[in-house]
Automatic annotation (TrEMBL):
This is Diaminopimelate decarboxylase. The lineage of its organism: Bacteria, Bacillati, Bacillota, Negativicutes, Selenomonadales. Pfam families: Orn_Arg_deC_N. Its EC number is 4.1.1.20. It comes from Sporomusa ovata. Homodimer. It catalyses: meso-2,6-diaminopimelate + H(+) = L-lysine + CO2.
């Protein structure tokens, strides 16, 4: 099986652990920067291109600052995410609020920041008006429902998913906003998650360009930007290939010329809000083997658990594992790699072929840089681990300390219990 590369050696990690005990997540800043540049470069043909990094994937302000330096904005879906983007120095139309079932406070904060508001439902128009006022620019999220196939266990198929407006609602919503004085319009969709087929994104672009033409013809509204959402996949398996961004971009360009430019609707700005493909492959969960157990199967017990990375337990997702220092050893043993939660699905890998694993070995779980630490939780009193940044000069910076028991207890008042 093809091996996945690491940006650090066993010696470096062993040294690091003396200062920052496992488990921790570590992100490769140089690789993330390079990757962000690659995406922007692929769309250099567009009159304007902006990637709004999906903050939910890796909500750390230090990481957001790095991405901002690379020209990326932020896609936020909650008040804390809006605040994180603000703390990372972002404001105005560098931020888009794509949330659903949105509370008033999020609309208020988005308005205060001058962020783009992407409405998830036609009924949100009055709600927004009442609580935060109607801005000069508005965006709507389109859900094509039966008009588009696709979807998967992460996002659901369009018809079953709770997001966005139907085609009819969308046209009504733009008309309402037009009557209420909105001058600038965007359109958004997100119909897929973790997709590796470039054609899927090109088909989505075609669908959106057709819709933009229809909106123009029906309502005389010239859409200013289209946001294709996130969803570009990550090659979690070593034998998978990453999405060729140039193929995606060139396919979208062809559709743009045939539909947008040919109908006099240029310039139309292109936006995306990928999370996974930006940071996913460049984050690693580093963990130490605490125990080995042999019953009906052979188990490796880590000091990390699904509270550090729940994708395998939640979606049965594959995450490659490297046993540090044993990269060249034969994969002669089969293990279930487990955490310590009282949940039998707390396993990073089932029936995984690995080299012989010993107590004290360091295991690196790959592709944990998006929807990894972010999905953490405190079940079973598990404390959330630290996050580190491997800097381009090889130094390592702590960008989030590990939680302490005091943090865990911070919302409890113990007074009066001891009597
Ligand atoms: C609205 C929205 N935008 C963007 C993303 C990012 O998706 P991905 O990390 O798969 O690119 C998500 C993921 O949940 C989302 O819900």
């Amino acid at each position: 099986m093809a091996e996945k590369k690491l940006p650090f050696t066993k010696e470096q990690v062993t040294e690091l652990i003396k200062q920052y005990p496992t488990p921790f997540h570590i992100y490769d800043e140089a690789a993330i920067r390079q990757n962000a540049r690659k995406l922007t470069k692929a769309f250099a043909w567009a009159p304007e291109f902006k990637e709004y990094f999906a903050v939910k994937a890796t909500p750390n302000p230090h990481l957001l600052k790095v991405l901002r330096e690379e020209g990326l904005g932020a896609d936020c879906s909650s008040l804390p995410e809006l605040i994180l983007a603000e703390k990372a120095g972002m404001c105005g139309e560098e931020i888009i609020l794509t949330s659903n079932d949105t509370p008033a406070i999020e609309f208020k904060k988005a308005r205060e920041l001058g962020a783009i508001i992407n409405l998830d439902d036609i009924s949100h128009i009055d709600y927004l008006d009442k609580h935060a006022g109607i801005p000069e620019m508005i965006c709507f999220r389109y859900n094509p429902g039966p008009l588009r196939d696709g979807g998967n266990s992460i996002i659901g198929n369009p018809e079953d998913s709770k997001y966005g407006l139907t085609r009819k609602q969308l046209l009504d919503a733009y008309r309402i906003m037009q009557l209420r004085g909105v001058k600038r319009f965007g359109i958004h969709t997100m119909v897929i998650s973790n997709e590796l087929d470039p054609n899927y994104f090109i088909e989505t672009a075609n669908m959106m360009f057709d819709l933009i033409i229809e909106i123009y013809r029906t309502l005389d509204i010239k859409i200013e930007f289209v946001n294709f959402g996130g969803g570009i996949g990550v090659p979690y398996w070593p034998e998978q290939e990453p999405v060729d961004l140039d193929v995606v971009s060139q396919g979208i360009k062809k559709a743009y010329e045939a539909k947008i430019a040919a109908n006099g609707l240029a310039p139309l700005k292109i936006a995306m809000e990928c999370g996974r493909m930006i940071t996913g492959p460049y984050g690693y969960l580093v963990s130490t083997v605490l125990h080995k157990k042999e019953i009906y199967k052979n188990y490796i017990g880590l000091d990390a658990c699904m509270a550090n990375l729940m994708r395998p337990a939640l979606y049965g997702a594959y995450h490659h594992i490297t046993v540090l220092g044993k990269e060249e050893w034969p994969l002669g043993y089969m293990y279930d790699v487990a955490g310590s939660l009282c949940e039998n699905n707390d396993k990073f890998a089932i029936n995984r072929k690995l080299p012989m694993v010993d107590i004290g070995d360091i295991l690196v779980i790959h592709d944990a840089g998006a929807h990894g630490h972010a999905m953490g939780f405190n079940y079973n009193g598990k404390l959330r681990s630290s996050e580190l940044m491997l800097k381009p000069d090889g130094s390592v910076e702590l960008i989030r300390r590990a939680e302490t028991i005091e943090d865990y207890f911070a919302t409890l008042d113990f007074s009066g219990l001891e009597k």
